Amino acid sequence: MSSILIYEVGPRDGLQNEAANVPTTDKIAFVDRLTTAGLPAIEVSAFVSPKWVPQMADAVEVFRGITRRPGTRYSALVPNLKGLDRALEAGVTEVAVFAAASETFSRRNINQSIDASLATYAEVSRAAEAAGVRVRGYLSTAFGCPFEGDVPIERVIDLTSRLLGLGLFEVAVSDTIGIAHPGQVRMALTAMTRSLPPARLALHFHDTRGTALANVLASLEFEIRTFDASAGGLGGCPYAPGASGNLATEDLVYLLHGLGHETGVRVDGVVQGRVHLDGEP
Length: 281
Ligand code: HMG
Ligand code: MG
Description:
Layout lengths: L4 E4 L1 H5 L9 H13 L4 E6 L12 H7 L7 E5 L3 H9 L4 E7 L2 H8 L3 H17 L3 E7 L12 H13 L4 E6 L6 H11 L8 E5 L6 H9 L5 E4 L19 H10 L8 H11 L4
Parallel strand pairs: 1-2, 1-8, 2-3, 3-4, 4-5, 5-6, 6-7, 7-8
Helix pairs in contact: 2-3, 2-11, 8-9, 10-11
Bound molecules: 3-hydroxy-3-methylglutaryl-coenzyme A and magnesium ion.
3-hydroxy-3-methylglutaryl-coenzyme A binds next to helix 4, helix 5 and strand 5.
């Protein structure tokens, strides 16, 4: 059995959607506890417009406050060069850009067409490379769009390939509203892995319909070795009506360890980090 990388998105995908204000000190403690739990990669925050997502306005302070463990990757979303500049100021060494597979979602989420966003990300990728920063990508609505419904797999393949062509090290194929089921995942990955290397794909499942773990099981058949998850199943996108939490990290770890895979993550540590966020000591 192989080693699987869990990319923790709770502090970003989880907290970007919280109605209540989460104090910066609690966010820092949350990230530190996730580090202690052994998560190898943590998406700490987002350098997006605070007018659009006020929950992430303290990204610089959160990055400055966390204790970075050597060997752990700490990443952040950036939508444009301004976001990259802010990330560089905060000492970030890995960022993630986020495109969509449906036009309506792209415009609602980042106020740009898909093509315009890819042009922006080409600039971000060039500037990040010059600064020695790695860039990950997301492709939202890859399994369905809250506004347009079905999304053709040919478009998903084309956009994933174009994102990788910008120099991104991996693309997280994302089920933004948690609509995918294992049959759809098998069909999508059968088609995608004909031309795209599984090592450069990650899967990002939201768990609206309780199918996320089953989707991971289906993805493992295709040599996918990176999965996004969120401690306690926090999550949702403010611009995707109906999107609920991400696949819970502790459930993913439990499944993977049960199958004999290694993750380096302690389930009790993940749970403690999440409980602490609820205000318990
Ligand atoms: P815009 O309004 O079209 O852009 O927003 P703008 O250039 O006109 O900027 C508006 C204001 O924001 C200006 O300030 C800019 O300076 C400022 P003003 O002049 O009015 O005072 N601004 C910024 N400030 C700080 N950092 C920045 C930045 N950029 C502009 N980086 C923009 C376009 C892309 C900025 C906006 O739409 C945005 O920030 N969108 C982010 C939305 C978001 O974060 N969504 C959630 C994350 S995606 C997600 O959850 C999906 C994912 O989990 C995968 C999945 O599940 O599918 C990743
Ligand atoms: Mg998400």
